[in-house]
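Justification of resources, computational component.

The compute hours requested in this renewal are based largely on the per-chain cost of generating structure records like the one below. Each record pairs the submitted sequence with a full structure-token output. That output is archived, and it is also reused by downstream analysis tasks.
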Amino acid sequence: MLKFLLFLLLPLFTFAMDPLKVMYVTYNLKERDFKAGVESVRKSMEAQGLKVLRTLTISDAIRARGNETFRNYYVVFGCEFDGMGDILLKAPALSNIVPCSVAVYEEGGRVRATVVNHQVFLTRYRNNLTLSERREISQLYRKLHSALASVSTNKPAISQAPAIRENLVHEDVIDGLDFDTFKTLYKTALDGVNMNILDIMDIRKDSPKFSIFLACNLSYGEAILKDIPQFGTLAPCRVYLYERDGKVITGYINIPFLLKTYGRHLSKENAEIFRRADQDIKQALKEAKGE
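The structure output for this chain reads:
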């Protein structure tokens, strides 16, 4: 009985002891040249049938702001698939793992590639999906891990997902505005607080609609990625909105949960940056709602 209890509690202990290892999976690429490493990731993903939508040249943009010593850091963004919109309508929080982001960066004299442990999200919201839908997400990530393993020198273990009861996203219900009007107002408001919208992915164009804002604040990213490069797997920041029962709902990653989980890995300054980002998005939401 004791062994069985310890088995059940093991994921919680693991998450509490080393949240970065539970939440992220990191590969050491064979390529020692950074741009060659990025290209190897892109080609390997496409060879697995994982469409690459864009590559975010984050370090180039940060250096253009004056920080010429910032590490090489790109994000390969993709993994879009047919039927994704239907899955996201049922489990909007999964917009943080599909489309996928592969953070490619230099660390310790190596070129590394990190992806989020999709099981953390999938386990939390598994009851929103059918078995076949869960298998579809798992199969997508199997292909992604196979793609990364084929261009890497290691095959890292994927930690068992912990049992998380808290919501991994924060959501708000919008009253009195239709989807398209709110989307326009919200984009303008997010741009106004320097959560600059790189692109809008209209995942579902017919009702019920589902869109994702791909947002970026380079000032925040510069500080956070310097200390914890794994966070780039959530870049660009996804702010989603969708229709349900005649109302518009919007959401984004639960920043207070991130602070509680990764607090010991964050400096006071970076913890404050997370809080400011949360406040910025909430302020933009108020402006879009006319409050």
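The chain is about 45% helix and 25% strand. The first helix runs from residue 2 to 17.
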